[in-house]
Amino acid sequence: MSVSSPARVLVVEDTPTQAELARVLLEGLGHEVRIATAAAPALAAARSWQPDAIVLDIELPDYNGLELMKRMAAEGIDAAIIVLTANASMNLAVEAMRGGAVDFIAKPYPRARLSVTLTNVLEKRALERESSRLKQANDALTSRLETLDRRRFHGFIGASPRMQAVYRTIESVAASRASVFITGESGTGKELAAEAVHKASPRAGQPFVALNCGAIPRDLLESEVFGHVKGAFTGATADRPGAAKLADSGTLFLDEIAEMPLEMQVKLLRFVQTGTFSAVGSGKVEKVDVRFVCATNRDPLLEVQAGRFREDLYYRLYVVPVELPPLRERGEDVLLIARHFLTVYTREEHRRFRGFSAEAERRLLAYSWPGNVRQLQNVVRNIVVLHDAERVEAEMLPVLLHRAVLAPVAAPPPMTAPPVAELPVAELPVAAPPVAEPPVAVSAAAAPEPVVYVQPAPPPVRAAAEPPPLPTLPPVPEEDVVMPLAVMERRLINAALRRTGNDVPRAAALLEVNPSTIYRKLQAWRSEGSAA
Amino acid sequence: MVEPGFAAQLAQDLEPEDIRLVLGVFHQDVERLTGVLDGNAAAADVGDFRRTCHALAGAAGAVGAVALEQAARTAMTNGDLLPAQLPAIAAEIRTQAAAALADMAAFLAALPQG
């Protein structure tokens, strides 16, 4: 309401002469006026008519104006109140002001005094209402912005547009029972996304059961999913529930679903279709209510086309796709995540780090992060373990990152089918039992233990005011040689294994991948070799 | 007697028609309240007597009837008011009320015809 527009004014006055004088004056000022001659009808009028202002006499026949003000405040009536008082009742006027009146007028009063006072209180009220409206609008916009521009979401850290889209998709699908299919390169946070789907869903209070299909030997996978009964196979000494049973009324996360053997895919399809299954060795059919979330770092459609993943299962599970972007496409998220890990590890390792130098940040941004968040996590952990200073300087970064600034590191290949075996595998170590990759947790709590890189003695920490020269960089071998990525990948893995004396975890650390990645590659190459 | 300053203020703030309206209500108030005051005095009800004086003072104050307002306010604020004193005080207030109404009639007669 603008101040110049007519206002609704309720006059609460039990003396007819006073009431009539007020009415005539107020109507002369262009306002709409109603009169109440006691407190109770005044309260009723304030409720129903919602006046902009109330001109209130304190002495009323039923209860006084101060009590009336209390009751109106309790009911949320926000009219501007002007108290009328005799000259001898100034103390009462002060009390009324403390009780919520905006102004007071001593009787008798001329029209000009009433006009100025009323204009002032209405203006103040209009400003308060506008302020309240703007605050509400601001709150709504802030809330909307937080939705559109969040830096954290259920353990994720990242404010990039790509991650905002991920957050929105997860939020949108969470309430549904629809299956979610998460894709993304290794280290992009697929398990974290699965957990986010669960936590944002109505099933949040129910179990979240994660199963890494690529880390479980194929002959044990059925038992892991559906459980077994005592005596079902050698070593089955007792009944054991599987992931399906444990996830009842919750969420079942099947990580690395593309690694699941075809014969197991048939059984999984039946389970997805009917919600029923039988434990290994049992004829009893059980029914559960689970929400499926799957993930793979491969292109699921390519896997279908190559015949490694059943098309019917694909269409059952690939209902809502969530594609996690690689870190190199997340812009300054790299810095947000790096700073987060720096804080976490600085605390853990009792170091002094407070941030990164501008040059160090530039190099972090310039690098392509083929191992994604997990690699960044490892790099930061490595720095914190090997150095101590107020600031991470550029020379504390691994050599790879220096190389990236001089010559941009090529992004890893897009998700593809497994490489074709070309090289002999005789020298390769026997594949150890696969190890599940830890989730790429970026929440402050319980960050997984990353690999600490072994690298040459760290340069001494120098004063921040005098940036040291960059270390001499090793030459990049065979930069101009072009070969299939799968071949290059195999060569690099072989080289790492040779250098470490076939120590897979150390080779994995050198390559900045998880050991399970190498174990899987070795197993795949061995299978292909024996099949050939 | 109607205070000349406030009468002038009324004349300045209101149209003659509105002044007549307000003073007409005042006239009714005075006649009603002086009657109530006599009843309070006859009943020796000091509390109601004070309340009626408060209403009369308010009405008189609104139109600038200073003498009537003062008489009513004095009675209203007298902490030692005794029931036996009420009829005399009511008579005094009635006298002031009659004077105020007479002054008011003169004031109205002097107003331009609307």
Can you characterise this structure?
The complex is a heterodimer of chains A (532) and B (114). Chain A contains 19 helices and 18 strands. Chain A is of the alpha/beta class. In chain A, helix 1 links the parallel strand 1 and strand 2. About 14% of the residues of chain A have low confidence. Chain B has 114 residues and is mostly helical. Chain B has one domain: Up-down Bundle (Four Helix Bundle (Hemerythrin (Met), subunit A)), CATH 1.20.120. The longest helix of chain B has 27 residues. Chain B is elongated. Chains A and B meet through helix 1 of A and helix 1, helix 2 and helix 3 of B.
Are there runs of chain A of 5+ residues with pLDDT below 50, and where? 406-411, 413-478
- Report the sheet-strand fraction of chain B: under 5%
**In total, how many domains does the architecture of chain A comprise?**
4
- Number of helical segments with 4 or more residues of chain B: 5
SSE order of chain B, as H and E? HHHHH
SS summary, helix count of chain A: 19
Instruction: Give the C-level CATH assignment of chain B.
Output: Mainly Alpha
Task: Say what the CATH topology of the largest domain in chain A is.
Answer: Rossmann fold
CATH architecture of chain B: Up-down Bundle
